[in-house]
Here is the input.
Amino acid sequence: MRNVGIIMRRELASYFATPLAYIFLLIFLILVNLFTFYLGEFFERGQADLNPFFSYHPWLFLFLIPAVSMRLWADERRSGSIELLMTLPVTLWQAVLGKFLAAWAFTILALVLTFPIWITVNFLGSPDNGAILSAYVGSMLLAAGFLSIGSLASALTRNPVVAFIVGIAACFAFLVAGFPLVLDAFRGWAPQFLVDAVASLGFLTHYEAISKGVIDIRDLIYFALLISWFLLATAVVLDVRKSE
Amino acid sequence: MIRTEALTKHYGPLTAVDAVSFTVSPGEVLGFLGPNGAGKTTTMRMLAGFINASSGHASICGHDVDTESLKARACLGYLPEGAPAYGEMTVRNFLEFIADLRALRGAARGRVNAVIERLQLQGVLGQTIETLSKGFRRRVGLAQAIMHDPPVLILDEPTDGLDPNQKHEVHTLINDMAGDKTVIISTHILDEVDAVCTRAIIIAHGRIVADDTPQGLAARSRYHNAVSLQLLRPEQLAAARAAIAALPQVAAVEADETAARLTALPREGAPLLGVLSELAASQGIALKELHLESGRLDEVFRTITA
Here is the structure.
């Protein structure tokens, strides 16, 4: 565990070594407020909750999270520093987990920085703060899910831009998996259990349940399994392709 | 101690390293020579645990690099080709990061400053690695490799791209450190072999084609014990050449007309120096220089690896 912490700290510091981290935080905060107040009509609907804020997170994350994860492994391979990291006394899973946790910590920081909107809604009315907390947890889990997918995309290539685009495409697939559009394409030929499987793989159903304040153990297990699977796949891909 | 047994690496149909076996003992500095693409870097990467062998075994300090990878890596200081590092980190932070992962705590933490001093990095500690010159970057890579005072060092082209002064510094460093360590350095600079190595392995097309001391390798040269003569008067060249070629101890004579230089190759290792100086005196050949050759490594290298 010590090595995971060391790798996580280094990775997190590297985000802030370039202006990228600050630009990301700024753009995230601007967009999230824009969506909440204009598209979500936060004031006009006259309700003391943060539904308009949280309902846009999946779509914002779709583009912003792959930007956080694209460098995780692609940069290591491009600069050759992966050869240094992988020949230090560090196991592969320590490196994969450490880097993933660094990226997650960074997105959690971005979410924490949205606190003024929570203060605002508490100032204007008396919202259900339990539900808001639950929704924040849902948002963090959604970010972690996207990051684990992005981590695999980054391990597949040495080009961060390719990792970014592949990451968006894969995240989009998981985001819309529960939509009628996708399910209808399966209904025509696939057996019902497959349609149900695809539907339950989608992020949105699990995310929306949590963001309404219902933390179901099944949704938590869903995110835990999905994240573990993608991190495992990242490790397998790196083991095979690290030296290429 | 480094040991490999029939170490082999295939990339599809290509065999990059073909059943390479050798043992390097403490106190030895092994020069790993070979043309580009001969399999030097692949072999070193397998030893460092960065790529897995297709077949065969390798061990560092008795730990198999495959089954006891972490123990093997803990004994090893490794400088990858091109000395990669995290460019956005400062030298100080990078070395602290390495010390953290090498679990240097308490008194052992003093190694960080010791290594900084040894490689004279004091002036650049606050600079990010990407802004450093090639020489400093290489030194940071070396600092990283020797951070935990490892018993085994593997350095992949430690002097590539350095200027002569920097090369000399790295050679001095390796000589100072060698002591009872086991060291492998790869290079295609043959002077380096004389400067730092106690033994040299030449590898070509993935196979070991020579394994000898630098002197032993030089002795394989057809110029071993050859004598070269630099003439004072170029017009004597033809006459001198004929006179030398007539000697029974001389196998062949090579002439460089522009430099007025003759090189006499000995027949079956016969000593030539005395015979030639007597000949020059009796025939009235004016000499600027008379010089006994120990052998030309580059010629051996070309002959073996071609």
